[in-house]
Amino acid sequence: MLGLFSRLQGEKYDGRKADAWSCGVILFALLVGALPFDDDNLRNLLEKVKLGVFHMPHFIPPDCQNLLRGMIEVDATKRFTLEQIQKHTWYITAILTFAAVILAAYNAMQSKVPPSKKCNYWNVHIRAQPERSCQVEPVSVLQEK
């Protein structure tokens, strides 16, 4: 996938710009369970890729839609850079949420929960300020009885 988009557009290959586009396609696939561009006819598929024509499912949150559209932008000069992606609200929130879940899981494993009882859910409370720092506080660990 790397470089495909640039070659289709007749542009000189720029790895960083192509990587941002490719990561957008991969993120879309992870969130939606399908690729953004699809067609049974290869010529039509390539045309959709060149034009950037894809359907954004309604269940994708607006801030994530903004990130995906910025990453899968056809015009390389308008496409989000890797730095812009890393500063995007949805990206920061996703990273903090993932870190909170990992921290809650680690704390649950370190607690004195008997091995016979499984921890099946972590209720995690996050207070984040993207430009500063974040505090992650596991609120509770529910256990199977």
From TrEMBL:
Record's signal peptide: none
Taxonomic path: Eukaryota, Metazoa, Chordata, Craniata, Vertebrata
Listed GO CC annotations: cytoplasm
UniProt GO MF annotations: ATP binding; protein serine/threonine kinase activity
A Gene Ontology biological process term: intracellular signal transduction
Membrane-traversing stretches: 20-37, 89-108
Keywords carried by this UniProt record: ATP-binding, Kinase, Membrane, Nucleotide-binding, Serine/threonine-protein kinase, Transferase, Transmembrane, Transmembrane helix
Cited InterPro entries: Kinase-like_dom_sf, Prot_kinase_dom
Parts forming coiled coils: none
Record domain Protein kinase: where: 1-91
EC code: 2.7.11.1
Xref: SUPFAM superfamilies: Protein kinase-like (PK-like) (SSF56112)
Pfam families, per the entry: Pkinase
Protein name: non-specific serine/threonine protein kinase
